[in-house]
Structure formats: C-alpha cells, structure tokens
Specification:
The complex is a heterotrimer. Chain A has 13 helices and two strands; from the N terminus they run αααααββαααααααα. By secondary structure, chain A is an all-alpha fold. Chain A has one domain (2-215). The longest helix of chain A has 27 residues, at 2-28. Chain B is an all-alpha fold. Chain B has a domain at 39-242. Chain B contains 14 helices and two strands, in the order ααααααβααααβαααα. Chain B has helices at 9-13, 19-38, 41-66, 74-92, 96-115, 123-147, 163-185, 188-198, 200-205, 210-236, 246-259, 264-287, 298-316, 320-334, and strands spanning 154-155, 238-239. In chain B, α3 (41-66) runs parallel beside α7 (163-185), α4 (74-92) runs antiparallel to α5 and α5 (96-115) runs antiparallel to α10. The chains are: A mainly alpha, B mainly alpha, C alpha/beta. The interface between A and B is large, with 42 and 43 residues.
Chain lengths: 289, 343, 260
C-alpha cells in the first residue's frame, strides 16, 4: 500500500512537470530542455514571495504562480521567438543554454543553501495516514493539484476557443496563420502555461522536501515520462508518468536504490526501440523532426 | 577571385593547395613546435587542455556536423574510454599501449549501440536516445565505483608527467585526429556522410547504404571519443564519474556549434573558445574587481556566462566562428571590391 | 472597380530562380477571375506573393507591385495581409485534421471589426451540417474542400484566393463546388481569384481569365475568347475533337500563337 502511495506521488510529480514538455512540444515542436531549471525557478519564486509576503501565505502562493507564468511568457518573447525560423536542433540547444544560464543565475541570486519555503509560509507539513500508508499533506496536495491541472488543461484545450486554436496551431501552423490565429501569441501562451505548471510542481516539491539544487534533476527525469507517453499527448504524459514512477519505485524497493536516476532513461530507451512515437503519440510526429 | 584554377582532381582534393597556403602552414607548424618553449606554465597547460579537448570535438564534428547525426551522449563515450583505461589499469595493471586500443575498441562497440537507434530515429528522437544511453553508461560507471569501493574515483599512473612532454604527445594526438578526419572526409565515407546529412532519401537513391554510413559515423566518432577519454584519464591521473556530466556533453556540443558546424576548422576554433572561456571570465572578474565577492560561486558565474554566450551565438551567429572567419577572409580577399548579393 | 492589381510582378526563389516574370493582371471587385496554367507555371507562387506567405521557401518579390484596394501589399507579413481581408484556401494542408468540423470553424479568428456567423457556412454547404462533430481527417475529399472554403469564409474575407480547387476531386463534385462558389459570390459580393489547372470548369464560372506559362501571362480574355482560342483548346481543353495521328505531331515546331 505504501508502495502504491509512493508511486502515486512520484507519478503526480512527473505528470505535472511532463505536461509542460507536452504543451510546448505540441504547439511549437520544440523540446524545452530548460524545463527543469524553470521548475526550480518557480520554487525559488515561492521562496522569494514567501519572504516578501510573510504572514500572507495565500498571497505569496498566488504571486509565485503568477510570476512563474510571466517568466514563461518572457522566455518566449526574449529568446524562443527569435529561434522560430531556425532548425529544431538550434532551438533545443537554445533551451539547453537557457537552462545553464538560469542555473548559474539562480545560484548567484539565491546561494547554494537548502531552503524551506513551507516554513517561510508558516505552514507545517503534516504526515497523514491513508489506509495504512503514510503520505505528507503537501504530497497529497500535489496529487490533487496534478488532477486539477490536467482536468483544467483538458477542458481548456477541448472546449475553449483559444484551446482549440492552440491545437490548430500545433497541427498546421501555416494554416493557422492563414486563418488569423496569431502564432506568437499561441506560443507565448503555451510557454506561460508550461512554466506555470512546472513552477507549481517545483513549488510543491520544494514545500515537501526542501529546495536545493538537485531539484533540477527531477525535471530531467520527467522528460522520459513525456516521451514514453507520446510528446504530443497529455493523456500520454499521465500514462508515461505512471509507468515510469511505478518502474522506479518498484525497482528501487526490490532491486537497488541506486537505480533511481537511470530507470526513467532505460524505460525511455526501451520505448524508443519499440514504439518511438510513444504510447499515445501520433506517428507523424516522428517524421516532422 | 584570383586567377588560380584547379585542373586536376588531386588538386581539388589536396589539403594544401597554393604556395601561399603551404607557406602559411609551415609558419604555423614552426609556431606549434616552438610554443612550449615560448609559453609560460599557465598558457602551456591551456594549450594542453585545448589539444586534448580538440580530439573529442573533432570526433563530434564528424558525427553531428558532417554526418548530421545528433548525439547528446558525448560525455558518456568519454567516460567509457576513461573508465576502460581506469579499470584495466586498476584490475590488471595494464600499460598505456594496451589501454588506448582497448578504449578505442570499447568506444567502437558503444558507438554501435549508440548508433543503432539512428537507423530508426532522426533529429530530436535520436538525440534523446543518445541522452538515455549516456545516463546508462554513467550509471554503469557509478556502479563500478561503488561496488569496488572507489567512491572518490580511480587513480591512474601516467607515463608522462612533464607538461612539455604532454604538449607534444597531445599535439601528436590532435594532429593525428585532424589528419585522419580530413582524409576520411575526402574519401568515399566522408562523401557518403555529407550525402546522408543532406537528404537521406536521395543518398539512398544514389546507391549509398544509409544504415552503413550512419553506423560508420557513430563507430568512428565514438572510437576517437573514447580514445580522447582515455587520454583524459591519463592527463588528469584520475577517473571519476562526476567529471562526465551532461554539462560536459553540452560543452562539446557548444564547441561545434560555436565553432561552426560542418568544418574541422570550426571544431578547433570552437574548442579554443570553450576551453579558454572560463579563464577569460575569471580574468574579467579579476579585472572588474569582482573576484573576491564571487569567489565561492565562481562556477555559477561561469555557468551563467557560458549559457549566455551559447544563446548569443545561436541567435546572432548561427554559422559560428567559422562563419565570422570566412566573412573576414572574404572581405580581405575581395578588397577593395565589395561584393553584394543580387537583390 | 479594381480590387487587386498585379503590376509586372517578379518573384525569385533563393534570389536566383525567377518563378514569376513580369506578371500583370487585374481582378475587379465582386468578380471571379481564373488564373490558368499547367504545373510549374508559377500560379501558386503568384498566389503566395499576393497572400504574403512567400518567405517560407526563401522567395521574395524582387520587382513589381501587388496593389490591393489601392495599397501596395507585396512583402507585407502574412498576418497583415490577412487582416486586410485577403484569405487563401491552400492546395495542401487546408483543414485541421485533428479538429472536428465545428472546431475547425471555431478556430478561425475573423478579421478585426467583422463578425461572421458560423451558421452561414452550414447554409452554403448543407452537407457539412450533418458532419459537425466529425473529425476533419475523416472527411471525404469533397467535404474537406467544402470545409476549407468554409473556414476561409469564416475569416470574413474581401478577396478569396483559391488554389487548385479541383485537385483530386470527381468532376461532378468540382462542378458542384464551382457553382456554390458562384452562389456565395452572388450572396456576399466576395471577390474570387481562382487558380486552376482544370481550365474547362474554371472558365464556366469565371468572369475573366488569365493563362500563365513559365512564369508569364501568355493570354487573357473573357471565357468565350479563351475557349475559342486554338492553343487553349489543344493544350487545355482536349482538342477540337478531330482525330490526330502521331505522324501529324508537328505542333511543337509550330511557333507559338500565344503572343499574337
């Protein structure tokens, strides 16, 4: 039972981060390898607003989330917009370079000590009992948040005007432009949403386990989850996250704790060999790149 | 342009053509040989680092710049070569002339593994598969370290100690790599690589076996990279898995991007840039008087500056240093006539 | 009044290959004008030059002008051209396959300052009304073309550019679509520039026609004049019906009557 809870929590973490990868890829065909760093930036954002608005935790959270979204839009406008004409490899390298830049900047701005934003917000991380298994309050919030986020995204993409336009732009950007859809606006929106969800994930992980520089690695491990599910499918991101989380937790428990870093990539490799476009991805995606 | 025409095929393929080129090369050669006697300790060490890194950079340029196969697994291959040397030395006390070919063999085999996905995947997906393989290789290295209790790394005894001796050894290695690559590129294999980079379907139609070309690219590049890793192990005298992070791969990719894709000269220029970069930043910090304030986080400053430099090159100079070099050279060649492209 | 005028338009690819050489044509407001020609004549390039989607293949308008409603629009970015009411129905990738018919229409952002009732599209194309919820990828060729035109109309355009309407469709279907286009023109007063390889069906609905070859306009006139022109008959309309034997093939040596 405890294993099941652990899998659920880890899968939620991966899923919340993976939807960012999927959003950006689906809309602009770019793999944002800066996502881990942006996730950490979100967590540091919470740390900053928690200190700034000490005594008003909800305002701090709201500000941090808003800040994360704004950063995503800013990243698109400042950098990725300029890469829209270039090859996909160049755009991906730009995101890698951005990640490196952000990592250095964050250390310079915030130092290397571990932070505990939850304490700064003035809250406790209670340990709850769920049918015999232990789960922390923040972890439970994380699971619920993931469900809410995915539900909201699904609703947005299926039912709202701009969600439909986002799907359209992802499929045929040229036709979308010909039908009046402003592509730059769509891409900026995608980046904003992706960074919002990623930042939210970062904040929750930091609240649960503390904010330190290894947070970034979790971002990188979530990336196979997105790929295994299919880079252009949100449902796939959920499925991929569950599979990788399950593999990781079970193998750590039954085989070797050291495997935690490499399991996502082994699963990824297996998937790339059997079914490169992922469980729920579309096959045409392969030929696009 | 000048009135120089090539009338024989050998002239077209030759590495050094005109008398001026040969003269300049001779001057360059003299400079290279005299360098260790002219430079101080710091600059000698820098030169050694550049020469060592250039082997790996040229190998990556062959794979990604010429054959067009994107690989993010470079650090994993370097690690494989270094660990082969380390393991053979530690377990069997093997000497250098055994570990180097062994590293090459391991690299070639791994190259096959890294290259197999390329038969099915392209572009981003291929890059991702090489990334996954990188992590697996690093994990294997970490497992070995933990299992055998070398948690701080494996110490290797190097046959060469003196910096000057290292210079000539590394110069020989780098020169051999460059010469080998240039020869390979003007051979059938090199042309096949350029073809598959351009359009795979067309290459296939021309009778080139695309799978064979791809695998050859991976195998050759990985073997050279692993040898570079082996040299790396001896140069540092020490092998540890922490040195072969994703950041190292990015540095090598930066070398070929900043240098300019599709050019051996680009690989070398890029190597010089990337290796010298942290020292330049250090010097700049010293000069600006900020060194004291940031001394504990100097690596973060390097990180940030490096990321920024990469972004600037990607956005403003996609053709890299070679592009700048060619523009400068053309300007001088055409002076005083300025050639404008047709409107 | 003239809504669109091309003056000695020249379009070059990669700065060296001139695909369109000195093309001049006029489209009167509210008319349907056909631009005819075989593959590679430069028709699609001309459409691209008008609609602004020309930079994609490294092409540029190197000379001449595209004048729309009195304003020069050549080399304007595509969203500016679309904002002025020039909408293109492309040859390929004309609908969003993953979206339903209704979603395809919802995705369109109509020109600023206009409103378009989506129901009108279903009035023009009743067959689509039955298929509202169907994914566009599962539509037949004719239905897809209807949706493509419908989604273009949803932009509330003034000038509709249609690229190869008849491509891959059965003749009866093509005739039906052309007639609907005429009906739409009658009801909305929209102007249409029709690029077609199928000269016969295009000339049935057009008010005026131009023939392009090798990047040049070689003939223009009313449909009657064009239909009766011998070269048009031979090269585009299947000949006059008289039997010819291969021994009589001297026509390639005959000097072209185009320029007469």
């Amino acid at each position: 039972m405890q294993l099941a809870v652990n899998i659920l929590v880890l899968a939620s973490i991966y899923a919340l981060i993976a939807c960012g990868y999927v959003l950006i890829y689906r809309v602009s065909r770019v793999l944002s390898l800066a996502h881990g760093e942006l996730m950490m930036l979100g967590a540091y954002g919470l740390y900053a607003t928690a200190s700034l608005f000490s005594g008003h935790p909800w305002i701090a959270i709201g500000a941090a989330v808003g800040l994360a979204a704004a950063v995503g839009v800013a990243v698109y406008l400042a950098l990725m917009w300029r890469m829209t004409g270039e090859s996909v490899l160049a755009a991906v390298l730009a995101t890698i370079a951005l990640g490196i830049l952000l990592r250095g900047a964050m250390i310079l701005a915030f130092g290397t000590q571990t932070q505990h934003p939850l304490r700064d917000l003035g809250w406790q991380n209670a340990s709850l009992d769920l049918g015999g298994a232990r789960i922390s309050a923040v972890a439970l919030t994380l699971v619920i948040s993931t469900v809410v986020v995915y539900g909201a995204l699904a609703l947005f993409l299926r039912a709202s005007r701009w969600g439909i336009r986002m799907r359209a732009a992802g499929q045929h950007p040229l036709l979308a432009a010909q039908r009046g859809i402003g592509l730059h606006g769509i891409y900026a929106l995608a980046w904003g949403l992706a960074t919002l969800t990623g930042g939210l994930a970062g904040m929750l992980i930091a609240a649960d386990a503390g904010l330190e520089s290894t947070l970034v690695i979790i971002g990188l491990k979530a990336f196979p989850a997105a790929l295994v599910g299919g880079l252009d499918s949100l449902v796939g991101a959920l499925a991929g996250s569950l599979i990788i989380a399950a593999a990781e937790v079970l193998l750590i428990h039954y085989v070797d704790p050291l495997l935690s870093e490499v399991v996502p990539f082994v699963v990824l490799l297996v998937m790339l060999v059997i079914r490169p476009w992922g469980l729920f991805g579309t096959r045409e995606e392969l030929d696009r790149v | 342009m000048s009135g120089y025409f090539r009338v024989r095929y050998m002239q077209d393929v030759a590495l050094l053509d005109t008398r001026t080129q040969k003269a300049w090369f001779a001057v360059f050669l003299v400079f290279l040989l005299a360098y260790p006697f002219l430079a101080n300790a710091l600059w000698l060490d820098l030169a050694n680092q550049v020469l060592l890194a250039s082997v790996g950079a040229v190998a990556l340029m062959l794979l990604t710049g010429y054959a067009g196969q994107i690989s993010l697994g470079h650090a994993g291959l370097l690690a494989a070569g270094a660990f082969t040397a380390g393991i053979l030395f530690k377990e069997f006390g093997a000497p250098f002339w055994v570990t180097l070919p062994a590293s090459a063999a391991v690299g070639a085999l791994l190259g096959l593994a890294f290259g197999l996905p390329s038969l099915r995947l392209r572009g981003l997906y291929l890059a991702v598969s090489t990334l996954a393989l990188h992590f697996i290789v690093i994990h294997a290295g970490a497992e070995y370290e933990t299992r055998r209790g070398y948690s701080t790394g494996i110490v290797i005894e190097s046959p060469i100690y003196d910096a000057r001796h290292w210079y000539f050894a590394l110069l020989a290695a780098a020169a051999a790599t460059v010469l080998f690559s240039l020869n390979l590129l003007r051979s059938r294999t090199g042309r096949a690589w350029r073809a598959i980079h351009g359009r795979e379907a067309v290459a296939e139609a021309l009778g080139i076996s695309v799978p064979r070309a791809k695998l050859t690219a991976f195998v050759v590049s990985s073997a050279i990279t692993a040898m570079a890793g082996c040299l790396f192990a001896y140069f540092r005298g020490f092998v540890s898995v922490e040195a072969f992070s994703l950041y190292l791969t990015i540095q090598y990719v930066a070398m070929i991007i900043i240098g300019g894709m599709g050019s051996i000269l680009g690989a070398i220029l890029g190597t010089v840039f990337v290796v010298l970069f942290p020292y330049t930043i250090d010097a700049a910090m010293d000069g600006l008087g900020l060194a004291g304030r940031f001394s504990s986080v100097i690596f973060a400053v390097n990180y940030a500056a490096f990321g920024l430099a990469m972004i600037l090159f990607l956005v403003f100079e996609p053709q890299g240093l070679v592009g700048i070099w060619r523009r400068a050279r053309n300007w001088f060649l055409l002076w005083p006539f300025k050639q404008r492209p047709a409107r | 009044m003239t809504l669109l005028r091309l003056e000695k338009l020249e379009v070059a690819y990669h700065r060296v290959i001139t695909a369109v050489q000195g093309v001049s044509l006029e489209v009167a407001k509210g008319s349907i004008v056909a631009l005819l020609g075989t593959n590679g004549a430069g028709k699609t390039t001309t459409l691209r030059a008008i609609s602004g989607f020309i930079g994609l293949d490294d092409a540029r308008v190197s000379e001449g002008a595209v004048i729309y409603a009195g304003e020069r629009i050549e080399n304007l970015p595509p969203h500016r051209v679309t904002a002025r009411g020039v909408v293109l129905v492309p040859e390929r990738n004309k609908v969003f396959e993953n979206l339903s018919v209704e979603e395809n229409l919802q995705a369109v952002v109509p020109r600023r300052g206009t409103r378009f009732d989506r129901e009108r599209v279903y009035q023009f194309f009743p067959a689509l009304a039955r298929l509202r919820r169907r994914e566009a990828g599962y539509l037949s060729g004719g239905e897809r073309q209807m949706l493509a035109i419908g989604s273009a109309l949803a932009c509330a355009p003034e000038l509709l550019l249609v690229d190869e309407l008849s491509q891959g469709l059965a003749p009866l279907l093509v005739e039906d679509l052309m007639r609907r286009l005429q009906a739409i023109r009658a009801e909305t007063g929209i102007t249409v520039l029709l690029v077609e390889q199928n000269a016969g069906v295009a000339l049935e609905v057009a008010d005026y026609g131009y023939v392009m070859e090798n990047g040049r306009i070689v003939l223009d006139g009313t449909p009657e004049r064009l239909r009766s022109h011998q070269d048009i008959q031979e090269f585009y309309l299947g000949g006059t019906g008289a039997r010819r034997s291969y021994r009589d093939v001297k026509q390639y040596r005959r000097s072209r009557r185009w320029y007469g």
